[in-house]
């Protein structure tokens, strides 16, 4: 790709407490080659010709946003599970109905549309927590990684990067009940066979890579946790795990193992700086210390936790303990990382009845560089020389953002305010429109195909 230049009205640069005005960003072959503040930054004024060539980006330009926790097919459930009462477990029944109806073709169509919605929201990289592996009765497809391959292809069509967090899912309960009904599609039998299947899958495109996941302590027996963790470690891959989303999981784990899920994971070598615990909504104080001391990341999914009546995770205490925080849209009740980010602060306010727990730069970090790191992309999420050329521009002249100082964007903007998205140097969204996918039409058709 040739050299491209952008002139950002404002850009949020690494290690800056707030955005900088008039920044020239240059990229070649998908990498940022220069970042030059035109005023006040000590850099020489760029030549008039250089500026004439540059693509103007009015508003605030951010590095790419990372969605560190996604189940693409849950997008089909938005707005369909709100009629009655219920909780996480009753919602899960509806989710299984959709899961039962997907095959590689319908999954490709649904995920492509869901990922294209993410691109419109400024998400340049997604972590797909993928457990829908096999045919409806648990029989593998001719290609046992056909469903994963569909997700990789979907991300390519949508123009975003993907870490396929292939998920080990073996049992229905903490005490080892077998998978039944729709859950049979998730299982590989045991962790060794899971590792064998995942090892045979290597995306051949630069936009996707694989990682590992343990569904939860409900779904992987204690004696097999180390097999998954060891495989991820040997392959240098990120490892994700749902953790303590529900008090019922804590109770069942205590009853069988005499300890919390976090303690169980720690004892089997699952925690560490390449591991991300998803949710961690109901940890004990000792759990927070184990997570923080091991530098285990925590991915918060506040709009899903809110939607499913899960509770509020102790985000400030997690950060204080030493866990890097990232963000995920999880069930896609909402796909908007601004909303996820500010919810981290606003939920703490509701709980404590005090304001000011997280600074804007902490929320910005969670949505960008920390999320990319959790997904194994250490070279993304910063507007810095050598990083991947991901640029996400937020309008500052919409009804929501007009008059808002750029540093306040995370408290004012929504996904609908994203005007321009560049991923690895390629324009994916221009003037608020996806360049190749008719997102509303494709979402409607793909969801109709698996729900009607
Ligand atoms: Zn999840």
Automatic annotation (TrEMBL):
Q: Where is the Amidohydrolase-related domain?
A: 62-428
**What InterPro entries is this protein classified in?**
Amidohydro-rel, HutF, Metal-dep_hydrolase_composite, Metal_Hydrolase, MTA/SAH_deaminase
* Keyword presence, Membrane: no
| Protein name (Swiss-Prot/TrEMBL) | Formiminoglutamate deiminase
* PANTHER family named among the record's database cross-references: AMIDOHYDROLASE-RELATED DOMAIN-CONTAINING PROTEIN, AMINOHYDROLASE SSNA-RELATED
The answer, when asked if Manganese is one of the entry's keywords, is no
Q: Which domain of life is it from?
A: Bacteria
Query: Which GO terms fall under molecular function for this chain's record?
Result: hydrolase activity, acting on carbon-nitrogen (but not peptide) bonds
């Amino acid at each position: 790709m040739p050299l491209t230049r952008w002139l950002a009205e404002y850009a949020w640069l690494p290690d800056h407490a707030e955005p900088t005005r008039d920044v020239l960003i240059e990229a070649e072959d998908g990498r940022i080659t220069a970042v030059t503040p035109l005023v006040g930054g000590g850099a020489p004024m760029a030549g008039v010709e250089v500026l004439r060539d540059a693509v103007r980006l009015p508003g605030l330009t951010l590095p790419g946003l990372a969605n560190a926790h996604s189940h693409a097919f849950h997008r089909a459930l938005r707005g369909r599970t709100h009629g009655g009462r219920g909780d996480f477990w009753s919602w899960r029944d509806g989710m299984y109905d959709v899961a039962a109806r997907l095959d590689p073709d319908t999954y490709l169509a649904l995920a492509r549309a869901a990922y294209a919605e993410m691109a419109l929201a400024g998400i340049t990289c997604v972590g797909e927590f993928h457990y829908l592996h096999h045919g409806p009765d648990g029989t593998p497809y001719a290609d046992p990684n056909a469903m994963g391959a569909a997700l990789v292809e979907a991300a390519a069509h949508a123009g975003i990067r993907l870490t396929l967090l292939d998920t080990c899912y073996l049992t229905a309960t903490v005490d080892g009940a077998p998978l039944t009904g729709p859950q049979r599609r998730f299982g590989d039998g045991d962790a060794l066979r899971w590792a064998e299947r995942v090892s045979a899958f290597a995306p051949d495109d630069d936009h996707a890579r694989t990682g590992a996941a343990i569904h939860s302590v409900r779904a992987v027996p204690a004696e097999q946790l180390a097999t998954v963790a060891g495989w991820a470690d040997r392959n240098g891959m990120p490892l994700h795990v749902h953790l303590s989303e529900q008090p019922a999981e804590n109770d069942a784990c205590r009853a069988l193992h005499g300890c919390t899920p976090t303690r169980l994971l720690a004892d089997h070598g699952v925690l560490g700086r390449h591991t991300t615990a998803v949710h961690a909504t109901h940890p004990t104080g000792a759990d927070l210390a184990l997570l923080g001391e091991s530098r285990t990341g925590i991915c918060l999914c506040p709009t899903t936790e809110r939607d499913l009546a899960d509770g509020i995770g102790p985000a400030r205490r997690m950060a204080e303990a030493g866990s890097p925080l990232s963000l995920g849209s999880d069930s896609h009740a909402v796909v908007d990382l601004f909303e996820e980010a500010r919810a981290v602060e606003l939920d703490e306010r509701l709980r404590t009845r005090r304001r000011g727990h997280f600074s804007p730069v902490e929320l910005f970090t969670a949505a960008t560089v920390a999320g990319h790191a959790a997904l194994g992309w250490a070279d993304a999420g910063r507007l810095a020389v050598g990083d991947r050329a991901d640029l996400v521009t937020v309008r500052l002249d919409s009804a929501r953002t007009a008059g808002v100082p750029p540093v306040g964007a995370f408290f004012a903007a929504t996904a609908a305010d994203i005007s321009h998205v560049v991923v690895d140097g390629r324009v994916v969204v221009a003037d608020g429109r996806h360049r190749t996918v008719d997102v509303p039409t494709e979402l409607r058709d793909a969801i109709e195909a698996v729900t009607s």
